[in-house]
Amino acid sequence: MKLNQISDNAGSSKERMRVGRGIGSGKGKTAGRGVKGQKARTGVAVKGFEGGQMPLHRRLPKRGFWNPFSTHYNEVNLGRIQEAVDSGKLAAGKPVTIEALVAAGVCSKPRDGVKLLGNGAIRAKLTFEVATASKSAIAAIEKAGGSVKLLAARAEAAEA
Fold it and tell me: 89 FRET partner, CA 20 to 30 A, in 46, 66, 73, 124?
C-alpha cells in the first residue's frame, strides 16, 4: 500500500450542492433560501433576535459578579494523603508540595495551591508545604510528628 493509493470508500462523502446555478438544478433563483428578507441575504447572523422585541437574554436581570482575585485551592483530606503514602506514590522523606501531589495523582492540576483538610487519619511523619490548612489538619499532622509550612501566609506577609 502506498500513500498515493489511499482513498475513501465509494459513497462515503457527498459532493456539495452548487446553488444558484439555474432553475434546472432545483437550487436556482433563491438558492434554497426561500424568498426575500433579511435571512435571504448574505452575512446574516441573528442569534437571539426576536423580531425587534427585547430579547430574552436582555429582559432577564444580571446577577452576581466574578471576583478576579478569588483563589481556588485543591482541597485534600489527610486520609487521601495517607492512602498515597501507603501505596508508595508519595515518599515519606520528601516534603509534600503541590508538585508532589500532582505527580502522585492526588490532585489533577496545581490551581492556586493546596488546602489541607482534617478528614481521615494520618500516621506518616510528613513535612507539608501548602498554601493553607485547617486547624484540625495541622493538629493531626503535628500529632503524627510532622510539620506544616504555610505558603499563603508568606505571600500575604510580602504584600503587607
Answer: 73
- Taking only the tens place, the pLDDT of each residue in 55-111 is 999 999 999 999 999 999 999 999 999 999 999 999 888 999 999 999 999 999 999
CATH number of 74-159: 3.100.10.10
The domain limits of the chain are: 14-64, 74-159
**What pTM was computed for the model?**
0.59
Instruction: Extract the runs of DSSP E, i.e. beta strands, from 2-154.
Output: 74-77, 114-117, 127-130, 132-133, 147-150
* Alpha-carbon torsion angle 105, 108, 110, 114, nearest 10: -70
